[in-house]
Amino acid sequence: MTIKSLLPGALGFGTAPLGNMFRAIPDEEAAATVEAAWDQGIRYFDTAPFYGAGLSEIRLGDVLAQHPRDEYVLSTKVGRVVLDETEDPAERDLGEKGGLFEHGRPNKMINDYTADATLRSIEDSLKRLRTDRLDIVWVHDVAQDFYGDEWLSAYETARTGAFRVLQKLREEGVIKAWGLGVNRVEPLELTLDLDEPKPDAFLLAGRYTLLDHDRALQRLLPAASAQDVDIVVGGPYSSGILAGGTHFEYQKAPVAIVDKVARIKAIAERYGVGIKAAALQFSLAHPATVAAIPGATKPSRIAEDVAALGETIPAAFWTALREEKLIADSAPVPTA
Fold it and tell me: Taking 70 as the threshold, does the pLDDT of residue 119 lie above it?
């Protein structure tokens, strides 16, 4: 089964913000945001134990439990196990993502990509999500941004552990699809070179956006297309900087990025184009990408995403971005 045939549309909902990413969100606001996504017709929801040490899964599960299970597609991730013992969330070593979920639950998390941990992680996620099954499971963050020079060692554990378990679960019909969910292209390129196990898709966050797409364009996306491995785009707004926020790569945006966004916005204003529409539609224009899953913590943001997906963007806007060297010459763009 291809992910494209499994997913109900090009727009899904990424629930990292529901894990209190960057700020503490009231339960009521989190629930209202998930309900807004449902009311806007979104039927694909992605989460992970990592998001607030299970908080995102719990909040998402509380809302989705009120809806028929056959009416939505659900994905979560493996690679981290949430424990009952607690720690100070602000003190966690999260690689380049330090402090990201300091407002999440205090439960201790351990990184573990072995077969046993993968099965335990899925069991725990099912309980938090209040469901009997998962549709897609991603192997989470087995990349340089969390493990630095040790990432290949973590990857090898995942290859012989999590990958094989997930392939077996797919073959048994327990899950419908599996792949990797990462913020870097290298682990995905490595996986495409494997004879087996073979993933169905990848969730690539932040690496195929208006602001950062050169590397993915060169090898990853053509290779994925050739192998019928679909790409779900995470973080199409680059952690918020393309949607009016101040973060890029989960941290305060550097001056060079702020300047680049200002240049894109100036062109967008000239052509009457919404910056969210440009970001979302760019990420989806490549033949290898099948869906984008922006996150949100306010119900109003969901309607903005839906409107952005449907906005008509003149071809002259994309031409202007190319002329200003703001997007790669080889990047496919939407056709009006």
Answer: yes
